[in-house]
Amino acid sequence: MNTKTNDKFNAKTHMNDGVCTVFLSGELDLSVAPDFRLVMEPLVGNSEIDLIVNMKEMTYIDSTGIGILLSILKARHGMQARFAVEEVPPQIQKLFDMTGIAKFFQT
């Protein structure tokens, strides 16, 4: 399990049977975007795994965080590799619905 933590953001990875789940907690915004990218970069390019982001413990996401998720989606789609977002909190799901991106994140 790989972990990246700062005062307001935490990302932990867990690998099981070809599925890598990244558990996020806290706030994903411009100030922590580099930390999130560091965790995700080596995973995104690995087409042999299914990549899932679990947002259960997320409290906030801004346009930078959404942009990173969309970049990951685009990269994974280009490799024909699975990417999903799961357990999205209601306040973040509402944002995904309002922006029209919810339909792109398969669960």
TrEMBL record:
It comes from the Bacteria. InterPro entries: Anti-sigma_ant, STAS_dom, STAS_dom_sf. Residues 9-107 form the STAS domain. Transmembrane segments: none annotated. Pfam families: STAS. Belongs to the anti-sigma-factor antagonist family. NCBIfam families: ant_ant_sig (TIGR00377). This is Anti-sigma factor antagonist. It comes from Paenibacillus lactis.
